[in-house]
Write a structure and sequence with these properties.
This protein is mainly α. Helices cover 39% and strands 5% of the residues.
Length: 130
């Protein structure tokens, strides 16, 4: 199942895009804290919004783990797995654990009280609601 999912190359849709804020910066608690001295520019994503995702970078796929796009892919895979494996439809209990780890990476790169972290939490909330 994983080979078929990977063959779709869903990650490639994020090439040459950018991580943009969901809302206007003024609506965020940390909206004025977009560029603090300790933030790290990893994978060429920069330290301020929008964060460009460079499709021609040798770090393109690795960079997705430091953007909400990594968790979007994770959620897509989990939903596909649940459907294809018919989880919850048999007579026995099924168990699947999913880790949305992007929050941790973003917290380390930009800080837990950063505009990036706040925007990501809003995005994870939407993923979980879906």
């Amino acid at each position: 199942m994983g080979k078929q999912w990977n063959a779709q190359k869903l990650a490639d849709k994020y090439k040459d895009t950018s991580w943009e804020l969901l809302k206007d910066a003024s609506t965020y608690l940390f909206g004025e804290d977009d560029d603090r001295p300790f933030e790290v520019d990893m994978f060429g994503l920069g330290t301020t919004f929008p964060h460009p995702v460079k499709g021609d970078s040798k770090y393109f796929y690795a960079s997705l783990i430091a953007t909400p796009f990594g968790d979007e892919l994770n959620a897509n895979f989990a939903k596909t797995l649940m459907k294809e494996e018919k989880l919850g439809q048999g007579e026995h209990t099924d168990y699947m654990a999913i880790s949305f780890s992007v929050t941790d990476y973003i917290g380390h790169l930009y800080g837990p009280s950063s505009l990036e972290a706040e925007d990501n939490v809003l995005r994870v909330d939407r993923l979980l609601a879906d």
